[in-house]
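Subject: sequence -> structure tokens, single chain

Hey, anyone have a minute? Need the predicted structure for the following. Not urgent.
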Amino acid sequence: MPLIDMPLEKLKTYEGINPKPKDFDAFWDNSIAEMRELDSQLELVPADFPTPYAECFDMYFKGVGGARIHARLAQPTQKCDSPGPAVLMFHGYSGNAGEWTGLLPYVAMGYTAVSLDCRGQGGQSEDVGGVKGTTQSGHIIRGLDGPPENMLFRNIFLDTAQMAKLVMEMDDVDENRVGAMGGSQGGGLTMACVSLEPRIKLAAPVFPFLSDYQRVWEMDLATGAYAELKYYFRMFDPQHKREDEIFNKLGYIDIQHLAPRIKAEVCMFTGLMDTICPPSTQFAAYNKITSKKSMEIYPDFGHEGLPYVGEKTFQFMTRL
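Reply:
Had a minute. Here:
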């Protein structure tokens, strides 16, 4: 078959090239501590979406930096005597929490289903870094010229973990029966979420974004969702005098370095013809997972709908 990346056998041992900052673990330990100190509670506003078996809510909470974060939450109308499972959903780059109908299959099984709006992207969550409303893209490089605590994806990663924590604390949710899922950016956020909230039991990331940025650059694939890497160098470091510094700082928001923290069982989905999130960048994260894991490989597919992923993910999550 044609190759756009390494042969599969080499992918299975690839460890990534983007540097890991020396204080990476301390950085994330401190960031998690900051998140946990927030006095944040869930606000549930009934949504105008009546269904026979689900209650739907717009969910809000205060994230790090004071941003008002939004998600969609749906629960079974018929309450059980004991807390039940929950699934957390994360969307692609510049997208939003999606439609209520995307949550309902899990509600029909008796699950609580929650879908996050990422800060400043296509939904209602705020990016409070100077403006409110959508900032659409440029999120990888937002904050790159300041301390790593200012990087936008640091805060988005924390939003995923905070949402997970708040959902786990709901009376109707069993904190020991929670899963996470998403594709592309949503796959990367799934990985970040389960690394920062180790109580999550199952994770189903699909061709995850936000991994091994230097590998993307060296493959000359800083296009599409990664195009802002090229824009940054052209605009702010045209002679690459700060290249080492820049990739080191991007290491703070590189999911491959968070992957060793994962305790959940992971089922990842990858297309070997993916030129948006190259397979090697995905394997860089996958190969660092030490918990139980498996990968569903699609040799002829790229960054596109992969056959039966929805069904396989659904079946995977029935194990909660």
